[in-house]
Write a structure and sequence with these properties.
Blueprint lengths: L4 E7 L4 E7 L4 E9 L7 E6 L7 E4 L5 H14 L9 E8 L10 E2 L2 H9 L8 H14 L5 E5 L9 H4 L5 H6 L9 H14 L8 E7 L3 E7 L2 E5 L21 H9 L4 H10 L2 H6 L4 H9 L3 H25 L4 E5 H6 L1 H8 L11 H5 L6 E2 L8 E4 L4 H14 L8
Parallel strand pairs: 1-6, 6-8, 9-12, 12-14
Antiparallel strand pairs: 1-2, 2-3, 3-4, 4-5, 7-8, 9-10, 10-11, 13-14
Helix pairs in contact: 1-3, 10-11, 11-13
Amino acid sequence: MTATRVLVLNSGSSSVKYQLLDMRDSSRLAVGLVERIGEETSRLVHTPLAGGGEKRERTGPIADHDTALKAVADELAHDGLGLDSPELAAIGHRVVHGGLKFTAPTVITDEVMAEIERLVPVAPLHNPANITGIRTAQALRPDLPQVAVFDTAFHTTMPESAARYAIDTETADAHRIRRYGFHGTSHAYVSRRTAALLGKDPSEVNVIVLHLGNGASASAVAGGRCVDTSMGLTPLEGLVMGTRSGDIDPAVTFHLKRVAGMSADDIDELLNKKSGLVGLCGDNDMREIRRRIDEGDERARLAFDIYIHRLKKYIGAYYAVLGRVDAIAFTAGVGENAAPVREAAVAGLEELGLALDAELNAVRSDEARFISAPYARVAVAVVPTDEELEIAQQTFALVTGVSEAGNA
């Protein structure tokens, strides 16, 4: 029997998201989430999608990631999809930070694990959780290929002029300080899918991808290669996000330390967890912000306007970087579902060839689609992202040789 299944694991600090896919047709066999790991109120939600099974949920303490993944294995086994199945080809892991060394999906070895650990200082919230998930999965299936797919890999094609910060090069090199970028699997998938919508090969298309969720990032993709992206050393830089500030004068941090007496940890928490939309108006849910705007709430209106202003700046900047833009693609939770955000982001950019069709923009759909006016020179698309499918495809290609896939 040929192994055609891939289990995708996304291990967070207190959660595990997972999907089991059959790569013969990219169908999902099961999806699930374990959240609040380490708490008394832990929760596992498992949905079998093959054979018409029903969603199952259980609550109660789940002490650690080892216990969580064993619970996931039990749920999959209950549906005849266990980790011991000979049909399982590999486990693909989302790893947030791969630095410069990992430019492609990579089979995990001791050396690879050591490098992921060395990158913990530049991804302290993410890489440790990814490492824990990998080690637990290895213990459950030591004989199975485990593959790391890195959020940063897609952005390693940026030229040095885009990736380097203008600080002392010896200091930057000694401490790995540069723009790495994140959401890479999403930007890769969406830019390629947008090219397909245009009926062209990715190598022929220049796309601005706007990944707008609670975390948000933009990328300029020329001929299938990322040439600039908004997130930097960490996911804090760039667009206004749900709880993150995005771009800010670095001297703000010195000012807060000297004048407000805040510690480095205090400032870190402020900029990552108490800023962005939630800092501006108390809400990070765009639906709630729009509701408040409709009721005349000025704080919500200002937060929305700041969000859109930053977004437009990046659209204009990346238009200049690319020189020619064939399409702009909105994706992720806000990008896919918030028509007012798309409308406001494009409004006033007619001289750049951008214009929306109001009726098309208002349609709710799970399908990739164009929403630009027929006379617009630049296509505007809504492209639902599928990071799990991207991870599964890259993992399967690497371990089976179905298509060319490199090792770092």
